[in-house]
Automatic annotation (TrEMBL):
It comes from the Bacteria. It comes from Fervidobacterium pennivorans. This is PEGA domain-containing protein. Residues 230-291 form the PEGA domain. InterPro entries: PEGA.
Length: 473
């Protein structure tokens, strides 16, 4: 009885092993058209008799299915699966190249070309393929070709000894020059390979651009068409400053900058800052009017004398350095010097104005001109002319005093708005101008603002006084 039980257990275990190994023996099933030949890891497995074939396989492995007249199927498998194979009819690519000795690569693989007639016929999978042709002395040509299933496509490739240069530009640019040719951009031209210089009108940031054209059938170059535009900044107070991209400009000004977005800060002593943003896509003007931190109103002192700040009587002035001239009711100058606009009484000092190459000694201190000194009334000073030997002269100062010579008189020039100043047609600076040295006599004084002449006059500069000239309206 026991022996029969043991025999029964052994038989059950044997059937279990047979079932287990039976599953492993048919771990890969391939469905394919009848007559297809199946290979696994380059070993022939068999021919599909009906619609499938099953066999034991090790993973990973490469499955290949072929049938005469169809494109082979190939796939790498990593696990036991059921694979359905749909074989497609082949596509063909008929090539013809010029010159006939050109080398042709399809997807990086060199193909055989009949050098007698420059042709090749290729069986090829459907899809997109990269074709490259090259020959000595010709530009290499690369193109992509799409082949449909079952399609037979003819492709003719003709290599050139020149390069098709495509100059791409975001803007239309006239009168550009490349290799001595006048062209308009964007443009497509035929050139020989090599280095070229592209010249653009000087309104562009990169008016000269170097291009190296490789020996290809077609080469695309993107032209830098960043343009330059004028930015004009003007307003009140004159002599303020603008901060733009890390640089500081004295105002008013007109500057040329590449088109871009700019953050601008305008500032001046004793005024609140003004900030703005500019999209510079064309010539642009900015006008500003800074708000003073502190203003004073002072037109007279001691109710008897009129005050001029930088040449003009002003209702209100910002607290800052001004060249201040005080006159009596008859228009005679009784005092001048620099003040902050807050004078309430006539200063007790006496001004001494010293011209260029003049030396003044007050006590043991030496001063060289051009400059202005303030001393007490009755002060004795020693004066020298640096251009002449033994020119020492002692002077007692009682009122406003100018120490100059006929060829070195002193001039101040003012305007309400900042102007460029030309003295006898030579630029001498922007207003206000203090202690300009010139010769006595008549001169032409010209005021220019924003490139336009706004005033011109003949003035008479005299020795022994401070000559103050203003823009006439």
């Amino acid at each position: 009885m026991r022996e029969n039980m043991k025999l029964g257990s052994l038989l059950k275990f044997a059937f279990l092993l047979i079932a287990l190994f039976s599953d492993l023996a048919f771990s890969l099933t391939v469905y394919a058209p009848k007559g297809s030949m199946v290979y696994y890891n380059d070993k022939f497995v068999g021919v599909v008799q009906k619609d499938s074939i099953s066999f034991n396989a090790e993973f990973p492995g490469t499955l290949k299915v072929v049938k005469p007249g169809f494109v082979p199927f190939e796939k790498t498998l990593t696990d036991d699966v059921t694979v359905t194979v749909e074989l497609s009819l082949p596509s063909f690519l008929n090539l013809k190249v010029t010159p006939k000795n050109a080398r042709v690569f399809v997807n990086g693989q060199l193909v055989e070309v009949d050098t007698f007639n420059g042709t090749a016929r290729l069986q090829i999978n459907s899809g997109v393929h990269e074709i490259k042709a090259e020959a000595p002395g010709y530009a290499t040509k690369t193109l992509r070709v799409e082949i449909n299933p079952y399609e037979e496509k003819d492709l003719e490739i003709t290599l050139k000894r020149t390069v098709t240069l495509k100059l791409v530009s975001e803007k239309n640019i006239d009168n550009a020059i490349l290799g001595g040719m006048l062209i308009n951009l964007p443009s497509t031209i035929e050139v020989e390979p090599g280095k070229y210089k592209l010249y653009l009108p000087n309104i562009f940031l990169k008016s000269i651009q170097e291009i190296e054209v490789p020996f290809l059938d077609e080469y695309v170059y993107k032209v830098d068409s960043t343009q330059m535009f004028k930015l004009t900044i003007d307003g009140s107070p004159a002599g303020a400053y603008a901060w733009i991209s890390g640089q500081i400009w004295k105002l008013p000004t007109t500057i040329v900058l590449p088109e871009n977005s700019y953050d601008i800060r305008i500032f001046s002593q004793n005024y609140e800052d003004y900030e703005t943003k500019v999209e510079l896509r064309k010539d642009t003007k900015i006008f500003y009017n800074l708000k003073p931190k502190w203003e004073v109103s002072q037109r007279t002192v001691n109710n008897n004398y009129v005050i001029e700040y930088d040449g003009y009587v002003r209702d209100r002035v910002v607290v800052k350095p001004w060249f201040t001239t005080i006159k009596d009711n008859a228009g005679n100058i009784v005092w001048y010097g620099f003040s902050d606009g807050s004078l309430k009484n006539l200063p007790k000092t006496v001004p001494i104005l010293i011209s260029k190459d003049m030396i003044c000694m007050v006590g043991t201190t030496i001063f060289k001109g051009p400059t202005i000194l303030q001393v007490a009334s009755g002060t004795n000073i020693l004066v020298f002319d640096n251009r002449r030997a033994k020119s020492e002269e002692r002077i007692q100062v009682e009122g406003p005093t100018v120490i100059d010579t006929e060829d070195r008189v002193l001039v101040n020039v003012y305007s309400k708005d900042v102007c460029e100043v030309y003295w006898d047609d030579e630029f001498i600076g922007n207003t206000p101008i203090y202690f300009f040295v010139t010769s006595a006599g008549k001169h032409k004084l010209t005021f220019v603002r924003n490139g336009l002449k706004v005033n011109e006059q003949i003035v008479d500069a005299k020795q022994g006084q401070l000559n103050e000239f203003r823009q006439s309206f």
